[in-house]
Each structure stands twice: as structure tokens, then as C-alpha cells.
Design a protein that fits this description.
The chain has a single domain, classed as Alpha-D-Glucose-1,6-Bisphosphate, Chain A, domain 4. Helix 2 packs across helix 3. The protein has helices spanning about 1-20, 40-55, 115-130, and strands at about 30-35, 55-60, 65-70, 80-85, 95-105. It is built from 3 helices and 5 strands, in the order αβαββββα. The chain is an alpha+beta fold and about 130 residues long.
Length: about 130
């Protein structure tokens, strides 16, 4: 039974990693502009917030993308989140931070958290601390 459960959890994590690739900044995401902060500070805050709420499946400072899935406490869940950080060239905003979210298996709705709002709200607090 433990082997079956292990395989199911691994399969959901792999599915989550593959599905996070469909997340993109823009259409369904939430955006925030960040002024007067270095890329390193913004990047660190984004990673800290993602790790606080979700399991990070990939983080890449060069592309400005952090992927995560909700599988905290060892129980796989149904949500995937991506945070995007990029420089804003044609404005007074230094960096844009975009958070996108999707249900990995929409037919398993359950108790869905709007991770976009949670991540952005916590990101603002984290950035204010550092």
C-alpha cells in the first residue's frame, strides 16, 4: 500500500511540474510593480514567499521564473503556481512581478485557494521587511 501511495504522490508531482509550464504572465495572473529594489531583493522575496506556501519545483533567476505546487504537509493537492520577475524598461517601475495559478486537475476542485492573491499579499509584506 505504501508503494502505491508513493507512486501516486510522485506521479502528481511530475504532472504538476509538467503542467506549471503552461502558466504564463498575463491573462489570468495578478501583477505588481516594484520600485526602488534590486533584482536580488525582489528575487529573494519571491522565492521566500513561494517556499513559505508551496513546494518549489523549479527556480531560475536567469529566466525570472519560480514554479511551485501545493503539496505541503506531504499531501498532494491540486494547485500549481508560477511567479515571474522581470525588469520593466519603459516605466518608472523597476521590476514587474506576475503570479499565475491553475488547477492541475480541474475536476477535483475541493478547497481551492486563490494563490495569486495570497502570494502577492505576502510578497508585499516580505519585500517591506527586507
Amino acid at each position: 500500500m505504501l508503494k502505491v501511495l508513493t507512486v501516486l504522490v510522485a506521479a502528481l508531482l511530475v504532472t504538476g511540474c509538467l503542467r506549471t509550464q503552461s502558466l504564463k504572465p498575463g491573462e489570468n495572473s495578478v501583477w505588481i510593480g516594484v520600485k526602488n529594489a534590486s533584482y536580488e531583493k525582489v528575487w529573494k522575496a519571491a522565492n521566500t514567499v513561494m517556499a513559505r506556501h508551496l513546494d518549489i519545483t523549479e527556480t531560475n533567476a536567469e529566466t525570472g521564473r519560480i514554479d511551485g505546487i501545493d503539496s505541503k504537509d506531504g499531501k498532494p493537492r491540486n494547485e500549481a503556481v508560477a511567479i515571474f520577475v522581470w525588469p520593466m524598461e519603459d516605466s518608472d517601475v523597476g521590476y514587474g512581478v506576475d503570479v499565475d495559478f491553475l488547477l492541475l486537475q480541474p475536476f477535483l476542485r475541493g478547497n481551492v485557494v486563490d494563490w495569486r492573491k495570497v502570494i502577492i499579499d505576502d510578497f508585499k509584506k516580505e519585500l517591506g521587511k527586507s
